[in-house]
Task: structure prediction
Amino acid sequence: MKIATYNVNGVNGRLPVLLRWLHETAPDVVCLQELKAPQEKFPLKAIEDAGYQAIWHGQKSWNGVAILSRGHEIQELRRELPGDEEDTHSRYIEAIINNMVIGCLYLPNGNPAPGPKLEYKLGWFERLHAHAAELLTHDVPVILAGDYNVMPTELDVYKPERWVDDALFRPEVREAFKNLVDQGWTDALRKIYPNEVIYTFWDYFRNAYGRNAGLRIDHFLLSPHLKKRLLNAGVDKEVRGWEKSSDHAPTWIELSEE
DNA sequence: ATGCCCGTGACACACGGA
Result:
């Protein structure tokens, strides 16, 4: 079973790229982030014509998350991260698919830092930490996939020294990610590529993709049940080079059946 | 230190992104 995550940076602006990628790689489940579309503007017909069911939580202009599934029913569990009634951002959606809980998340960016946006990010991380711990108590396979907006280590940044004050790489943000993983999660990409440089994002500026000046910020965290089922993982890097691409590339894992 | 390049919303440029 192949599961992917892709920050599309505008689901309607990205639709030709998204459909081509779905057609060429046929993932079973896809977590999308940054739809940048209100609920009623999600391109459901095109997604269905491509062979997928979908649930999504849109928002005008910003944020927005979706889960697509080909073949397996989607049973939605929630469409917001618990813990803050006043958080209006569409950044989390969760479902049961094929006997697994799949959480699709878009963690806040946090810049400029320090400041209220970084505080929001760290607060969101605390809520994710609490919810992730709760999920682990249920003894069911769980995947937390999405754009975490964190480079976990120096290996995940083309020039670490330039990013130390940035909200994607500040020590407290890396620590929040590490604390989450230390609950017992497996960082799937790093498990498959323990020492390799592997990026999921390249800025639109400065020919970042051409220079491979990238970041690894899209992650799969696997609950203990799934660690032994992890067969492979990767980044569809070439998609970043397509015309009208997102600044992120699709990232995926392959799991064995049971 | 800053802009670079994008999508969105709405019609010019502001905003957010990472």
